[in-house]
Amino acid sequence: MDVDAYSARHRQAWARLDSLAGRRKLTGAEADELVLLYRRTSQQLARLQTHSPEPELVAGLSALLARARGRIVGSSPDTWTEIRRFFTHRFPAAVYDAFGWWLGVAVVFLAVVAGFTTWISADPSARRTLGLQEDTRALTAPGGAFETYYTEHPNDAFAALVWTNNAWVSALALFLGVLILPVLYLLFMNALNIGVTAGLMADAGRLDSLFGFLLPHGMLELTAIFIAGGAGLKLGWTLIDPGPRSRAAAVAQQGRSTAAIALGLVPTLLVAGLLEGFVTPSALPTPARIGCGLLAEALFLTYIFAAGRRAKAEDATATLEVSTDTAPGTR
Fold first, then answer.
1. DSSP per residue, 214-254
2. Measured between alpha carbons, how far is 113 from 15 in angstroms, rounded to an integer?
3. pLDDT, tens digit, for every residue of 29-82?
4. Which of 132, 135, 177, 218 has its CA at a distance of 20 to 30 angstroms from the CA of residue 299?
Protein backbone atom coordinates (compact mmCIF):
# COMPACT_ATOMS: atom_id res chain seq x y z
CA MET A 1 0.00 0.00 0.00
CA ASP A 2 1.20 3.50 -0.83
CA VAL A 3 0.51 5.11 2.55
CA ASP A 4 1.24 8.64 1.37
CA ALA A 5 -1.19 8.37 -1.55
CA TYR A 6 -3.78 6.74 0.68
CA SER A 7 -3.45 9.47 3.30
CA ALA A 8 -3.64 12.21 0.67
CA ARG A 9 -6.78 10.64 -0.74
CA HIS A 10 -8.60 10.65 2.62
CA ARG A 11 -7.00 13.58 4.45
CA GLN A 12 -9.84 15.95 3.64
CA ALA A 13 -12.45 13.53 5.02
CA TRP A 14 -10.38 12.98 8.17
CA ALA A 15 -10.08 16.72 8.66
CA ARG A 16 -13.83 17.06 8.26
CA LEU A 17 -14.39 14.32 10.86
CA ASP A 18 -12.02 16.12 13.25
CA SER A 19 -13.88 19.38 12.72
CA LEU A 20 -17.29 17.84 13.37
CA ALA A 21 -16.07 15.95 16.43
CA GLY A 22 -14.82 19.20 17.95
CA ARG A 23 -18.00 21.22 17.54
CA ARG A 24 -20.23 21.97 20.48
CA LYS A 25 -23.46 21.80 18.50
CA LEU A 26 -24.33 19.89 15.37
CA THR A 27 -27.27 20.20 13.03
CA GLY A 28 -29.14 17.04 12.10
CA ALA A 29 -27.30 16.81 8.78
CA GLU A 30 -23.93 17.33 10.46
CA ALA A 31 -24.69 14.62 13.03
CA ASP A 32 -25.52 12.19 10.22
CA GLU A 33 -22.31 13.16 8.44
CA LEU A 34 -20.31 12.63 11.65
CA VAL A 35 -21.65 9.08 12.04
CA LEU A 36 -21.01 8.28 8.36
CA LEU A 37 -17.43 9.63 8.44
CA TYR A 38 -16.77 7.78 11.68
CA ARG A 39 -17.81 4.47 10.10
CA ARG A 40 -15.73 5.06 6.98
CA THR A 41 -12.66 6.12 8.95
CA SER A 42 -12.99 3.01 11.15
CA GLN A 43 -12.90 0.87 8.01
CA GLN A 44 -9.89 2.80 6.71
CA LEU A 45 -8.01 2.45 10.00
CA ALA A 46 -8.66 -1.29 10.01
CA ARG A 47 -7.24 -1.52 6.50
CA LEU A 48 -4.14 0.46 7.44
CA GLN A 49 -3.52 -1.75 10.44
CA THR A 50 -3.85 -4.87 8.30
CA HIS A 51 -1.88 -3.94 5.22
CA SER A 52 0.61 -1.25 6.08
CA PRO A 53 0.86 -0.24 9.73
CA GLU A 54 2.32 3.22 10.17
CA PRO A 55 2.51 3.92 13.91
CA GLU A 56 2.07 7.68 13.71
CA LEU A 57 -0.79 7.54 11.24
CA VAL A 58 -2.53 4.72 13.09
CA ALA A 59 -2.15 6.53 16.42
CA GLY A 60 -3.48 9.76 14.94
CA LEU A 61 -6.52 8.08 13.40
CA SER A 62 -7.17 6.13 16.60
CA ALA A 63 -7.21 9.36 18.60
CA LEU A 64 -9.48 10.98 16.01
CA LEU A 65 -11.90 8.07 16.16
CA ALA A 66 -11.87 8.15 19.96
CA ARG A 67 -12.87 11.83 19.91
CA ALA A 68 -15.55 11.18 17.29
CA ARG A 69 -16.90 8.20 19.20
CA GLY A 70 -17.09 10.26 22.38
CA ARG A 71 -18.94 12.97 20.47
CA ILE A 72 -21.40 10.46 19.05
CA VAL A 73 -22.01 8.48 22.25
CA GLY A 74 -21.74 11.29 24.75
CA SER A 75 -23.65 14.00 22.93
CA SER A 76 -26.94 14.82 24.65
CA PRO A 77 -28.74 15.78 21.40
CA ASP A 78 -27.79 12.37 19.99
CA THR A 79 -31.08 10.84 21.16
CA TRP A 80 -33.02 13.31 19.08
CA THR A 81 -30.64 12.77 16.19
CA GLU A 82 -31.30 9.04 16.36
CA ILE A 83 -35.05 9.61 16.48
CA ARG A 84 -34.86 11.89 13.47
CA ARG A 85 -32.65 9.41 11.63
CA PHE A 86 -35.08 6.62 12.45
CA PHE A 87 -37.98 8.40 10.78
CA THR A 88 -35.95 9.76 7.86
CA HIS A 89 -33.87 6.64 7.21
CA ARG A 90 -34.48 3.36 9.03
CA PHE A 91 -38.28 3.17 9.01
CA PRO A 92 -38.93 4.32 5.41
CA ALA A 93 -36.01 2.19 4.16
CA ALA A 94 -37.43 -0.91 5.86
CA VAL A 95 -40.93 -0.30 4.48
CA TYR A 96 -39.57 0.52 1.02
CA ASP A 97 -37.45 -2.63 1.05
CA ALA A 98 -40.53 -4.76 1.83
CA PHE A 99 -42.66 -3.07 -0.86
CA GLY A 100 -43.16 -6.20 -2.97
CA TRP A 101 -44.44 -8.11 0.04
CA TRP A 102 -46.96 -5.60 1.29
CA LEU A 103 -48.13 -4.80 -2.24
CA GLY A 104 -48.83 -8.51 -2.70
CA VAL A 105 -50.71 -8.58 0.60
CA ALA A 106 -52.76 -5.56 -0.48
CA VAL A 107 -53.70 -7.09 -3.85
CA VAL A 108 -54.77 -10.43 -2.36
CA PHE A 109 -56.57 -8.77 0.57
CA LEU A 110 -58.60 -6.45 -1.67
CA ALA A 111 -59.35 -9.32 -4.05
CA VAL A 112 -60.77 -11.35 -1.13
CA VAL A 113 -62.84 -8.35 -0.01
CA ALA A 114 -64.17 -7.84 -3.55
CA GLY A 115 -64.94 -11.55 -3.87
CA PHE A 116 -67.00 -11.72 -0.68
CA THR A 117 -68.71 -8.41 -1.47
CA THR A 118 -69.79 -9.66 -4.89
CA TRP A 119 -70.86 -13.08 -3.62
CA ILE A 120 -72.95 -11.78 -0.70
CA SER A 121 -74.64 -9.03 -2.71
CA ALA A 122 -75.39 -11.25 -5.72
CA ASP A 123 -76.14 -14.70 -4.27
CA PRO A 124 -79.03 -15.08 -1.77
CA SER A 125 -77.55 -18.37 -0.52
CA ALA A 126 -74.34 -16.67 0.61
CA ARG A 127 -75.90 -15.51 3.87
CA ARG A 128 -76.99 -19.03 4.78
CA THR A 129 -73.58 -20.42 3.87
CA LEU A 130 -71.82 -17.89 6.09
CA GLY A 131 -74.38 -18.20 8.90
CA LEU A 132 -75.60 -14.61 8.54
CA GLN A 133 -79.05 -13.41 9.48
CA GLU A 134 -81.50 -12.97 6.63
CA ASP A 135 -82.69 -9.61 7.95
CA THR A 136 -79.70 -7.29 8.40
CA ARG A 137 -81.51 -3.97 8.26
CA ALA A 138 -80.43 -3.20 11.83
CA LEU A 139 -76.89 -3.08 10.48
CA THR A 140 -77.38 -1.53 7.06
CA ALA A 141 -80.28 0.92 7.43
CA PRO A 142 -79.61 4.67 7.76
CA GLY A 143 -78.69 5.26 11.39
CA GLY A 144 -78.08 1.52 11.79
CA ALA A 145 -75.27 -0.27 13.61
CA PHE A 146 -72.74 0.35 10.84
CA GLU A 147 -73.11 4.11 11.02
CA THR A 148 -73.64 4.48 14.78
CA TYR A 149 -70.44 2.47 15.41
CA TYR A 150 -68.50 5.64 14.56
CA THR A 151 -70.59 7.98 16.72
CA GLU A 152 -71.62 6.02 19.82
CA HIS A 153 -68.42 6.90 21.75
CA PRO A 154 -66.75 10.26 22.50
CA ASN A 155 -64.33 11.15 19.70
CA ASP A 156 -61.15 11.09 21.77
CA ALA A 157 -62.00 7.81 23.51
CA PHE A 158 -62.96 6.22 20.20
CA ALA A 159 -59.73 7.38 18.56
CA ALA A 160 -57.69 5.88 21.42
CA LEU A 161 -59.64 2.62 21.23
CA VAL A 162 -59.14 2.34 17.48
CA TRP A 163 -55.44 3.16 17.76
CA THR A 164 -54.90 0.50 20.41
CA ASN A 165 -56.81 -2.15 18.46
CA ASN A 166 -55.06 -1.43 15.16
CA ALA A 167 -51.65 -1.35 16.83
CA TRP A 168 -52.39 -4.76 18.35
CA VAL A 169 -53.50 -6.22 15.02
CA SER A 170 -50.40 -4.83 13.29
CA ALA A 171 -48.10 -6.14 16.02
CA LEU A 172 -49.61 -9.62 15.68
CA ALA A 173 -49.19 -9.50 11.90
CA LEU A 174 -45.57 -8.42 12.25
CA PHE A 175 -44.29 -10.74 14.92
CA LEU A 176 -46.40 -13.82 14.17
CA GLY A 177 -45.07 -13.60 10.62
CA VAL A 178 -42.26 -15.96 11.53
CA LEU A 179 -44.97 -18.67 11.70
CA ILE A 180 -46.64 -17.46 8.45
CA LEU A 181 -49.99 -19.27 8.90
CA PRO A 182 -51.26 -17.12 11.82
CA VAL A 183 -50.64 -13.98 9.75
CA LEU A 184 -52.48 -15.42 6.76
CA TYR A 185 -55.39 -16.30 9.06
CA LEU A 186 -55.40 -12.83 10.64
CA LEU A 187 -55.39 -11.09 7.27
CA PHE A 188 -58.08 -13.39 5.89
CA MET A 189 -60.40 -12.77 8.84
CA ASN A 190 -60.00 -9.01 8.49
CA ALA A 191 -60.71 -9.25 4.76
CA LEU A 192 -63.73 -11.47 5.47
CA ASN A 193 -65.17 -8.98 7.98
CA ILE A 194 -64.83 -6.08 5.56
CA GLY A 195 -66.15 -8.16 2.66
CA VAL A 196 -69.21 -9.28 4.60
CA THR A 197 -70.03 -5.75 5.71
CA ALA A 198 -69.49 -4.39 2.20
CA GLY A 199 -71.62 -7.16 0.69
CA LEU A 200 -74.51 -6.47 3.05
CA MET A 201 -74.30 -2.73 2.45
CA ALA A 202 -74.14 -3.29 -1.32
CA ASP A 203 -77.20 -5.55 -1.14
CA ALA A 204 -79.02 -2.78 0.74
CA GLY A 205 -78.00 -0.24 -1.90
CA ARG A 206 -75.90 1.71 0.58
CA LEU A 207 -72.37 1.49 -0.80
CA ASP A 208 -72.20 5.30 -0.72
CA SER A 209 -72.55 5.19 3.06
CA LEU A 210 -69.99 2.40 3.29
CA PHE A 211 -67.36 4.35 1.38
CA GLY A 212 -68.24 7.60 3.16
CA PHE A 213 -67.53 6.06 6.55
CA LEU A 214 -64.76 3.63 5.62
CA LEU A 215 -62.48 5.56 3.28
CA PRO A 216 -61.58 8.62 5.43
CA HIS A 217 -59.58 6.49 7.87
CA GLY A 218 -59.54 3.14 6.08
CA MET A 219 -57.02 4.01 3.37
CA LEU A 220 -54.21 4.77 5.82
CA GLU A 221 -55.31 2.14 8.33
CA LEU A 222 -55.39 -0.66 5.76
CA THR A 223 -52.08 0.46 4.26
CA ALA A 224 -50.49 0.10 7.71
CA ILE A 225 -52.00 -3.38 8.09
CA PHE A 226 -50.77 -4.36 4.62
CA ILE A 227 -47.27 -3.20 5.54
CA ALA A 228 -47.38 -5.10 8.82
CA GLY A 229 -48.64 -8.25 7.13
CA GLY A 230 -46.11 -8.03 4.31
CA ALA A 231 -43.19 -7.42 6.67
CA GLY A 232 -44.33 -10.27 8.90
CA LEU A 233 -44.54 -12.69 5.97
CA LYS A 234 -41.14 -11.55 4.74
CA LEU A 235 -39.69 -12.37 8.16
CA GLY A 236 -41.26 -15.83 8.03
CA TRP A 237 -39.98 -16.46 4.52
CA THR A 238 -36.47 -15.40 5.55
CA LEU A 239 -36.52 -18.22 8.07
CA ILE A 240 -37.40 -20.66 5.27
CA ASP A 241 -35.07 -19.21 2.64
CA PRO A 242 -32.26 -17.12 4.17
CA GLY A 243 -30.41 -16.75 0.86
CA PRO A 244 -26.60 -16.67 0.81
CA ARG A 245 -26.31 -15.68 4.49
CA SER A 246 -26.60 -18.02 7.47
CA ARG A 247 -30.16 -18.49 8.69
CA ALA A 248 -29.38 -16.81 12.04
CA ALA A 249 -27.79 -13.76 10.39
CA ALA A 250 -30.58 -13.38 7.83
CA VAL A 251 -33.36 -13.67 10.40
CA ALA A 252 -31.56 -11.29 12.77
CA GLN A 253 -31.22 -8.65 10.06
CA GLN A 254 -34.82 -9.03 8.92
CA GLY A 255 -35.96 -9.02 12.53
CA ARG A 256 -34.35 -5.63 13.04
CA SER A 257 -36.16 -4.31 9.97
CA THR A 258 -39.43 -5.78 11.26
CA ALA A 259 -38.92 -4.10 14.64
CA ALA A 260 -38.24 -0.77 12.89
CA ILE A 261 -41.49 -1.13 10.93
CA ALA A 262 -43.40 -2.00 14.11
CA LEU A 263 -42.15 1.14 15.84
CA GLY A 264 -42.70 3.36 12.81
CA LEU A 265 -46.28 2.20 12.34
CA VAL A 266 -47.27 3.39 15.83
CA PRO A 267 -47.58 7.09 14.84
CA THR A 268 -49.03 6.05 11.46
CA LEU A 269 -51.83 4.19 13.19
CA LEU A 270 -52.26 7.09 15.59
CA VAL A 271 -53.03 9.34 12.61
CA ALA A 272 -55.45 6.73 11.27
CA GLY A 273 -57.12 6.55 14.70
CA LEU A 274 -57.48 10.33 14.85
CA LEU A 275 -59.07 10.31 11.41
CA GLU A 276 -61.50 7.58 12.48
CA GLY A 277 -62.28 9.29 15.76
CA PHE A 278 -62.67 12.86 14.55
CA VAL A 279 -63.02 13.02 10.74
CA THR A 280 -65.07 9.91 9.87
CA PRO A 281 -68.02 10.74 12.18
CA SER A 282 -67.82 14.50 11.61
CA ALA A 283 -70.46 16.66 9.97
CA LEU A 284 -68.18 17.41 7.03
CA PRO A 285 -69.57 16.55 3.58
CA THR A 286 -68.62 13.07 2.43
CA PRO A 287 -66.23 14.31 -0.31
CA ALA A 288 -64.40 16.42 2.27
CA ARG A 289 -64.06 13.51 4.68
CA ILE A 290 -62.78 11.20 1.95
CA GLY A 291 -60.46 13.99 0.79
CA CYS A 292 -58.89 14.15 4.26
CA GLY A 293 -58.23 10.41 4.15
CA LEU A 294 -56.87 10.60 0.63
CA LEU A 295 -54.51 13.43 1.62
CA ALA A 296 -53.19 11.45 4.60
CA GLU A 297 -52.65 8.39 2.41
CA ALA A 298 -50.89 10.39 -0.32
CA LEU A 299 -48.59 12.10 2.19
CA PHE A 300 -47.69 8.78 3.83
CA LEU A 301 -46.92 7.00 0.56
CA THR A 302 -44.93 9.98 -0.74
CA TYR A 303 -42.92 9.97 2.48
CA ILE A 304 -42.25 6.22 2.31
CA PHE A 305 -41.17 6.15 -1.33
CA ALA A 306 -39.18 9.41 -1.32
CA ALA A 307 -37.38 8.89 1.99
CA GLY A 308 -37.09 5.14 1.51
CA ARG A 309 -35.54 5.44 -1.96
CA ARG A 310 -33.11 8.09 -0.72
CA ALA A 311 -32.12 6.00 2.31
CA LYS A 312 -31.49 2.91 0.19
CA ALA A 313 -29.39 4.96 -2.23
CA GLU A 314 -27.31 6.37 0.65
CA ASP A 315 -26.75 2.87 2.04
CA ALA A 316 -25.70 1.58 -1.37
CA THR A 317 -23.29 4.51 -1.86
CA ALA A 318 -21.70 3.99 1.55
CA THR A 319 -21.30 0.25 0.91
CA LEU A 320 -19.75 0.90 -2.51
CA GLU A 321 -17.29 3.41 -1.09
CA VAL A 322 -16.15 1.02 1.63
CA SER A 323 -15.88 -1.85 -0.89
CA THR A 324 -13.82 0.32 -3.25
CA ASP A 325 -11.67 1.46 -0.37
CA THR A 326 -10.81 -2.12 0.60
CA ALA A 327 -10.51 -3.58 -2.92
CA PRO A 328 -7.21 -5.37 -3.69
CA GLY A 329 -6.49 -2.97 -6.54
CA THR A 330 -6.09 -0.09 -4.08
CA ARG A 331 -3.08 -1.62 -2.33
1. HHHHHHHHHHHHHHHHHHHHHHHHHHH--TTS-HHHHHHHH
2. 59
3. 888 888 888 888 888 888 777 665 566 677 788 888 888 888 777 654 456 777
4. 177
Amino acid letter for position 101: W
- pTM for the full model? 0.74
Sequence-ordered list of residues with C-beta below 8 angstroms from that of 130, at least 6 positions apart, any chain: 120, 196
Dump pLDDT digits (tens) for 283-310.
999 999 999 999 999 999 999 999 999 9
Q: Say which DSSP state 98 is in.
A: T
Q: Is 65 within 8 Å of 16 (Cβ atoms)?
A: no
Query: What is the rounded CA–CA span in Å between residue 273 and residue 300?
Result: 15
Q: Please tell me the distance from the alpha carbon of residue 9 to that of residue 75, in angstroms, as a whole number.
A: 29
121 exposed, middle or buried (CB, 10 Å; 0-12, 13-18, 19+)? middle
Give yes or no for a contact between 161 and 153, defined as CB atoms under 8 angstroms apart. Answer: yes
